[in-house]
Every structure is written in structure tokens, then in C-alpha cells.
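Hi there, hope your week has been kind to you so far. No rush at all, and the record is pasted right below.
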Amino acid sequence: MKLPDLRKLPAPVRIALFLVALYAFLLSIELLGAGFKSLGGGFAKTLFSLTAAPIAGLFVGILATAVCQSSSSTTSVVVGLVAAGQLDIRVAIPVVMGANIGTTVTNFLVSFGLVARRQEFERAFSTSIMHDVFNILSVALLLPLETAFRPLERSSAWLARAFAGVGGLNFASPLKLATRPVVEFLAGLARGFEWALLVLALVLLFTALKLMMDLMRSLISGRVELVIDRYLFGNAARAFAVGLLFTMLIQSSSATMAIAVPLAGAGILTLRQLFPYALGTNVGTTITANLAALVTGNIAAVQVAFVHLLFNVFGVAVWFPLRALPLALTRIIGGFCARHRVFSVLFVLLVFFAIPLVTVILLRR
């Protein structure tokens, strides 16, 4: 059945359809998270028994988070183990670093929805990979420093003691409020067949993405692009603030970045504009976690949350002034994977699954 030409539909109808597609898109991301968590949550927890050294912790963090697609789940397990004395904070810190890397798999899945259009795919895949380039560069810089001088451990411990008893804030995510009833209903139906939930999520993701892209092409006028370009992403500080505040609001850096991927694919936003936005999402998700951790009053929870925050703040402080390097690496890798699309799949499989798993097994011996 051929879909009608969207450009012939009245603008209000197209806007309504776009909002429906956006909801379906965000719902699919939440369903992906629920599906990954159901299938891989148990496996992710068993990985922590293999965490004996800081470098192993890094790869456990990547793999555990990639499997369940929830850095908050990984961090929650870390908090529990640290609080129980079963995981040393010096090993927990690399796990948190790894969780920062592993949480971006969803972005790549979104970019694969544009694989049929090379230019759009290159822009979308590059946007996805940009997040990881920043995280990997930050780990490459901070992990050796942490091993030698322990700046994250010491500063997070000091902050945890300083803020002990201050109290925090725990507020509901509008995204989760809007999607949770549907996610819980579908997850209940799929109990015992979690793979079906993942299949449904992927079908919904790619369908909603296709509709969103088509509607964006028909809706985005020069004036709208000007508003996005000038007022939301007019300068780096503004883009950073948008990413930070948006992520704090919906409490999901995966969703915040996933929304940016099709905008990049459509050519509405550039990598240079999205780089500070991505940094803002990284920091935004940790601020929300810090506020929630402070509510508990648990020193271990607060320290782990501060580790996550400080890792991203230090990374921003270093790589934003030196952004030419991560942007150059992003363009090189993104361009290569767009020309040889099989390598885009290999990149995801190797970076998030194969290399971490093999490394953890080898280090365990």
C-alpha cells in the first residue's frame, strides 16, 4: 500500500503525525531498553563477578551497559556492590567510565534506520560515533591518571562527604510517565518471549524514524531551520545548555541523543553544532543521578554518582577546547563506515561486545 504524498497533507495534520511519530520513536527506545534489560540483565550482573582489576572493570562496564542498554542499571549495581564492600571504589570507577561508553548502542541502531541513504547515514552514524569518540578519548586520558594519582576517587570522596545529609531531589521523567504504561503492558504480554519485545521495538523504531524523516523534510522550512540553528544551536554554550537541560528533563541521554541523530541525518544540524550538545547530554544525565543519589543519603551511592559527574566534567574541560581532534576522528570513522557500511555493523559489534567480552575473559585468567 502506497502512502500518500505527505507534502499534500495540511500542515496541522503533518504536525500531528510528526508528534505521533515522535512518541512512537521515543516509545521504541524505551521498549529497546526494557527488552535489552530483560534479556541481558542477568548476564550483565554476572559480569561483575569477573571484575577484579580496574582495566577489567572498564570493559565490564562497557559490556554490561551495552547488553542491558542502561547506564543507570549498571551504576545501580555498582552502588550496591560498593556499599556492600564487594567492589572496591578503585575498580568501580573504571566500570562507571565503561558505562558511559556502552550506553550509546541505541544511537547506532537509530542511525542504521538511514543506512539506505548514504549521505544521511554518514551524518547520522557520525553523530552516533561522536558520542563514543568523546567518551573513549576521555577514558584514554583519565583512566591512566586515575590509576596513577586517583583524582576522581579523591575528589568524589571529598564531595560525597561534603554533601552528605544535604538531601537531593527525585522527580519523575516526563518521557517515562508518557511511555511507562505502554512499555509495562507490552513487556507483560511478552514475558517469556523477550526477543519479541526487541523485534517489536526495532520495527517501531525504524517505522517511526522513516515517518519522522519524511515529515521533517516536508515540514522544515527555512524559517524553522533558522530558529533551530540560531536560537537553539547558535553557539556552543547554547547547544551545551540545550543538551544538558533536555537530558535533565527527560532523564535519558540515550533518548536525547537519539532525537539528534535524525536531525543530523536530515542535514539540519552539523557535527560541530552537535558536539557541545552531546557533551551537555553526558553531563545532564549525571546531574539527575546525583540529585537522586543525594536523596538516599548513602555515601557509596553519592560517591559513585559524583564519579560519573566528575568524569564527564573533566572530559568536557579537556576535549571541548580541543574539539578539533574528536571531530576529526568522528568524520574519518563516520566517512569510512558510510562508504563501507558493513564496517559500521562491525564497529558496533567489536567495540561494544566482542572486544570487551574477550578482554574480560583474558584478564580473568
